[in-house]
Amino acid sequence: VLVSGHLDSWDVGQGAMDDGGGAFISWEALSLIKDLGLRPKRTLRLVLWTGEEQGGIGAKQYYQLHKENISNFDIVMESDEGTFKPSGLGFTGSAKAREIVKEIMTLLQPVNATDVYDNADGTDIDFWMRAGVPGASLHSDISKYFWFHHSQGDTMTVQDPNQMNLCAAVWTVVSYVIADMEEMLPR
Fold first, then answer.
1. Which of 65, 85, 122, 132 is the Cys-Cys partner for 78 at CB 3.0 to 4.6 Å?
2. Per the database record, which ranges form the Peptidase M28 domain (predicted)?
3. pLDDT of residue 82
4. DSSP states of 12-64 as a string?
């Protein structure tokens, strides 16, 4: 199970929201799983992408290096639309896999982040999804996203720790449950 975000500070600003937030919650998901002493049946892998704005060159290189093991990738997850209040996941995969993801998302009712939207979105996971690996992308309230996107205002002050914690909770639950299932998601 691959969880990811990318480091995107390539023009102005610090890239804290786009997409440092995705990198932060991906790191935090694995950290929480470890701190809780949980050991899923399958490997969880964190990838902090580079070069997304330069044509996805980091993702392309990673895919080239690891595509021979594609059957070992259960799901690829990317957060690249800020880490504001989460509502659920975008998902790309088979109908059977979608039903399993919908069931997993019911675990997130206490934080009201249960929606499963059509199609995962993420430049860095696109190679994998086109090759048939299920993909997920975080959906959060993007009403303020373009206030800060690629601007000098994209600093750590944009990040709300409570909303980031909710995003990390979504990432943690989904990645852990999928990694701990008896079988991989159906393709």
1. 122
2. 1-171
3. 85
4. SS--IIIIIHHHHHHHHHHHHHHHTT---SS--EEEEE--TTTTSHHHHHHHH
Structure tokens at 36: 């809780």
Q: What is the pTM of this model?
A: 0.94
Point out the catalytic residue in the list 28, 52, 78, 81: 52
Sketch the domain layout of the chain as residue ranges.
2-180
DSSP 68: G
Q: How many Å from the N-terminal Cα to the C-terminal Cα in the chain?
A: 14
Residues of the chain below pLDDT 50: none
- Catalytic annotation on 52? yes
Rounded distance, CA 120 to CA 104, Å? 16
Residue 128 confidence (pLDDT): 98
pLDDT in tens, 126-174: 999 999 999 999 999 988 877 787 788 888 888 899 999 999 999 999 9
